[in-house]
């Protein structure tokens, strides 16, 4: 397990995000031609990822998060959506503002500003909380504390945390996430953010609840996912695999390569992309130390017959 003081990870926009930003700014100009729009449509049709990237940027332009992001880093005034501002200046301002704000959001810096404890990519860190409980932050995680006279707990802004909670029946320990909450008295468990919140319990009992209703109770060796609308069915876990990261390892059993790479990518300083659908479905088994993620990628490529293409320090492609 590694721990670094004052981590300063390098953040950058992906190629797709960069292209989407350029298209967004280009289409704000009233002089955008039919040819421009035809080329934009062709770009969207290349990959579903293009549409997703553009939609996120368009939504971000309308969101309060943009104002919040920019107010934290620089005094860049938002352009007023008014006819009084010349169209060309508006388009240029839109490009600068959205690019700045989107970089902050995509790189996780907004979460880090709100956090009391963070880890960089590939870093793991164990901290002691005010009540004697402990929290181990996995790679690229942001955690905020929420303690008071009558409450104890934390909010996971992003990432994954393993908790060792000291018993206190008078003050249950509450983990807050965007989709819901996890409530315990004394136990050991992990919570991982994402499209759904994943909860794995090593010992004790935890109660999981969605923001909009629904709840489940988990005991040792069980797993569930929390959505805003409710909580998924409870399933059994292999504790050795579920908590392997605490020992600096990645263990997977007969899983699609795409799932393994998605998990490995969380620890890797850059993006790992699989370009072949058949390769992505290839099932693999392994037990690796997380010390050298690039070496794991090469090993998985050898096993599956894939070719590794390093396009840059931050982009690795696996091709069948």
TrEMBL record:
Q: Taxonomically, which superkingdom? A: Bacteria
Q: Which residues form the FecR N-terminal domain?
A: 18-59
Report what the protein is called. FecR family protein
InterPro entries referenced in this protein's UniProt entry, alphabetically? FecR, FecR_N, Ferrdict_sens_TM
Q: Kindly name one Pfam family recorded for this protein.
A: FecR
Tell me where in this chain the FecR protein domain is found: 117-206
């Amino acid at each position: 397990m590694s721990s670094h003081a004052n981590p300063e990870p390098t953040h950058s926009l992906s190629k797709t995000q960069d292209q989407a930003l350029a298209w967004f700014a280009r289409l704000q100009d009233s002089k955008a031609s039919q040819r421009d729009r035809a080329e934009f449509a062709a770009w969207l049709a290349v990959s579903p990822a293009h549409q997703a990237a553009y939609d996120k940027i368009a939504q971000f332009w309308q969101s309060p998060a943009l104002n919040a992001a920019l107010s934290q880093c620089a005094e860049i005034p938002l352009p007023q959506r008014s006819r009084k501002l010349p169209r060309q200046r508006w388009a240029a301002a839109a490009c600068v503002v959205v690019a700045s704000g989107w970089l902050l959001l995509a790189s996780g810096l907004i979460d880090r500003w709100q956090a009391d404890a963070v880890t960089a990519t590939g870093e793991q860190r164990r901290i002691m909380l005010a009540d004697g409980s402990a929290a181990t932050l996995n790679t690229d995680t942001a955690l905020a504390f929420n303690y008071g006279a009558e409450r104890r707990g934390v909010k996971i802004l992003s990432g994954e945390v393993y908790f060792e909670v000291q018993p206190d029946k008078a003050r249950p320990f509450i983990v807050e996430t965007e989709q819901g909450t996890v409530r315990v008295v004394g136990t050991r468990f992990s919570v991982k953010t994402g499209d759904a919140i994943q909860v794995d319990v090593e010992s004790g009992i935890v109660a999981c609840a969605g923001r909009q209703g629904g709840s489940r109770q988990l005991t040792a060796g069980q797993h569930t996912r929390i959505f805003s609308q409710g909580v998924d069915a409870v399933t059994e876990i292999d504790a050795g695999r579920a908590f392997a990261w605490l020992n600096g390892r990645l263990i997977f059993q007969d899983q699609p390569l795409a799932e393994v790479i998605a998990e490995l990518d969380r620890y890797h300083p850059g993006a790992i992309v699989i370009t072949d659908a058949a390769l992505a479905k290839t099932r693999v088994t392994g037990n690796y130390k997380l010390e050298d993620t690039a070496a794991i990628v090469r090993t998985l490529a050898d096993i599956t017959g894939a070719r590794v293409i390093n396009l840059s320090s931050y982009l690795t492609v696996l091709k069948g």
